[in-house]
Model the fold of this input.
Amino acid sequence: MPRYLFIRRRRRGLFAMLSLTLLAGVGGAFLLSNSPQQDSPPAPPTTTVSGPPWVYGNSKARFTLVIYADFECPYCQAYIPQLMRWVKTNPDVALQWRHLPLAAHEPAASREARLAECFGETGGASMFWQAVDWIYTHTRGNGQGVAESSNPHGLSAATQACMKNERATVIVRTQTEEATAAGITATPTLQLLDGKTGRTLKLEGAVDDDVLLSALDWMSSTPIVNGEESTPPRMPADDVGDMPR
Done:
């Protein structure tokens, strides 16, 4: 029995308590004046397919949790490593990254997004997620960047070449435009996709484990009647998030 269904049986009535909060916050900026010394910062292992949008976890999972994130967002910095650990313990869920650098955090946000894409281009999905981990580990956020003492030097020739071409820039810009067109303007924002039924559920802010499990429960158990599904539960998130300023 899937873990989220087991928890649902233990927590009857949880949906009645849930309410979705649209969150606003102020964001930080991280300017990386130098780049990582090596293309292998530490991060948990992944099982993925290669190529953007990058996937963390089981690439054949029924559910995909799309994360729209900004590398300069302090809320993303605190939340995304936690989310990656949660995905690692839930094999029915894969995490997919989507860039959403906010205007208030430019140009640093887009530069870091390009850097992560270049790690992925030269080293694959595992390297991309290691770059995510490295950036969030070392940034001080809110425009302070990486401390000089933490700033390693040097990139591989392949990564340097990638940073000079337009491929990574196009990927970041395209994902940002797609998010904006979908009405997603805050980070972090999550979109849960059910590969079996095609259902989607949007969650804004740093959503905790119980809410994620309840969302999975609703997605997997709610019947569709006369071609229409019931209204999704309103789900709370922590009062954190970055909105464009």
Q: What stands out?
A: Residues 29 and 105 are 5 Å apart (CA to CA). Residues 108-123 form the longest helix (16 residues).
